[in-house]
Amino acid sequence: MSDQVVTRFAPSPTGFLHIGGARTALFNWLYARGRGGKFLLRIEDTDRERSTPEATAAILQGMAWLGLDHDGEVISQFEGADRHAEVALQLLADGKAYKCFATQDEIAAFREQARAEGASTLFRSPWRDADATTHPDAPYVIRIKAPQEGATVIRDQVQGDVTIRNEQLDDMVLLRSDGTPVYMLAVVVDDHDMGVTHVIRGDDHLNNAARQMMIYEAMGWDVPVWAHIPLIHGPDGKKLSKRHGALGAQEYQAMGYPAAGMRNYLARLGWSHGDDEFFTDAQARDWFDLDGIGKSPARFDLKKLENLCGQHIAIADDAALRQEAEAYLAAAEQPALTQAQSTNLERAMFCLKDRARTFPELIEKAEFALTSRPIEPDQKAAKALNSVSDGILKDLTPHLQNASWSRESLEESLSAFCEARELKFGKLAGPLRAALAGRSVTPSVFDMMVVLGREEVLARLADAAELARSS
C-alpha cells in the first residue's frame, strides 16, 4: 500500500449533497489534507435511471460552497464498466469465480422452500463446482467463490474489530447476465485503481466491507483501512430526514450559514478533540484523526450550528465576509447589491460581524449602510422624530460640520454637545438612529456615522429634521 494517504468521497448523483454526505466528504478531506495526502472524488453513477447531470452539478456546487477541493479529475464509475468486467473475468479465469446458470425462478423457489423448512435462505448455487463441460448454452451470471469456513474480520478504525462468520456470506454476483458489473465490484476496482488507502464512509456500509474484502483478497490486493462512521440523527434521536428541516448542503447556504461555521459544526458532529468546540480550518486539519470519531450517532442541533457560525463570522476577514454575504444573496435568490452597497457593506463589517450568527442577521444589521435616501423610518423609529428631536438634530448639524470624522472624535463631539444642552445621550441617540437608519435597533450611532461619512450623515439629518417638522 502507498505511503501517501489517499481518501475519496463517492456520492451517488441521485439528488443534492445530503448533510450526512457533506460530513463524510469533510472527514475524508480533513484526513487527507492533514497528512499531505490526496482527496479524490468519484461519482457513482452506475444507476443510469436515477443518476442525473443536475444531481452531479448540485453535489459539486455543495462541495465548492463548503470549500472541499478535490485532487485530479472527477471520476465517473459508469465509465469504468469495462475495467470492472475485466476483473470479474480475471477471477473467473483464475478459478476464483464461476458461471452460475440458476434462473431467478429457481432462486426464488429455493428461498421459498428454505423459509418453509426454517432453513437459511442464503442461496448456494449448484454451479459453484460444476464441470464446465456440463454448462448449458444459456444466460449466466458470474459469482465469486466466497470462503465457506472460518470468519472474516473487518478491522475498523471506528467500530473496532467486527467479525462475520463466512457461512453468512453468499457467492456474490460480480457480473449480471447482461455482462454489466454490480456496484460492489465497481467500488472495489475503483478504490484499488485510484490507490485509495483509507475508506471513510457511513456505517450503513459496514456489512458491505466483508463482501468487498472477498474481492480484494481474491485479487491479491491490499485491503484499505476501514473507518465506518455513525449516521447523523435529528434532535429527536431518529435518522435525519426531511421532517427535521433542510437536508442539502446548498439549502444551508441559502439559509445564510457561513461555510466556515458549517465546516466547524460538521467536523464536531461525531468527532471530538478534547473539549474544543470552536476551531479554525487549520486546527481541524491538524487535529482530525480517526480515533476521535465516536461510535454513537451524532444529533444535529441548529442552535449549536448558529452559535459556531456566529463565532466564525466574528473572526472573518471583512472582504471575504462581504463576498460570502453576496454569494448568500445569490443562493437565496435575493437581489444583488450595487457596487456602492457592496462597498458600504464591507466598510461596515467592523460594526456588524460581532453579533450576527447568519448572513440574514448580518444584512439586517447592515440596513443603514445599504439603504438610500430618503429613509422611511419604521413605526417605532418614527416616534423618536418629533418637534423636540427636530430642534436637537438642527442644532447638531453645524456641530458635526466642523467635527473631526473619527469614532473617537465623534464620541467626544456628541458628548460635549449633550453636556452643553444638559441632555442625556439617550435623548440624542433615539432621533439619531431614526435619522441614520430609520430603525430603533441599530449598530452604535458612532459606528454608523463613521461608515456613512460626513456628507451622507448631514443629508440624512436634514431629511429627518424635515420629516419631524411635517409630522
UniProtKB/TrEMBL annotation:
The keyword Metal-binding is assigned to this record: no
Residues of the Glutamyl/glutaminyl-tRNA synthetase class Ib catalytic domain: 4-306
CDD domains: GluRS_core (cd00808)
InterPro entries documented for this protein: aa-tRNA-synth_I_cd-bd, aa-tRNA-synth_I_codon-bd_sub2, aa-tRNA-synth_I_CS, aa_tRNA-synth_I_cd-bd_sf, Glu-tRNA-ligase_bac/mito, Glu/Gln-tRNA-synth, Glu/Gln-tRNA-synth_Ib_cat-dom, GluQ/Sye
UniProt-annotated binding residues for ATP: K242
Entries under Pfam families matching the protein: Anticodon_2, tRNA-synt_1c
SUPFAM superfamilies: An anticodon-binding domain of class I aminoacyl-tRNA synthetases (SSF48163), Nucleotidylyl transferase (SSF52374)
PROSITE patterns: AA_TRNA_LIGASE_I
Enzyme class: ligase
Domain Aminoacyl-tRNA synthetase class I anticodon-binding stretches: 329-464
EC code(s) of this entry: 6.1.1.17
Sequence motif 'KMSKS' region, location on chain: 239-243
Compartments reported by the entry: Cytoplasm
Database matches in NCBIfam families: gltX_bact
Described function: Catalyzes the attachment of glutamate to tRNA(Glu) in a two-step reaction: glutamate is first activated by ATP to form Glu-AMP and then transferred to the acceptor end of tRNA(Glu).
Similarity comment text for this entry: Belongs to the class-I aminoacyl-tRNA synthetase family. Glutamate--tRNA ligase type 1 subfamily.
Subunit note: Monomer.
Entry protein name: Glutamate--tRNA ligase
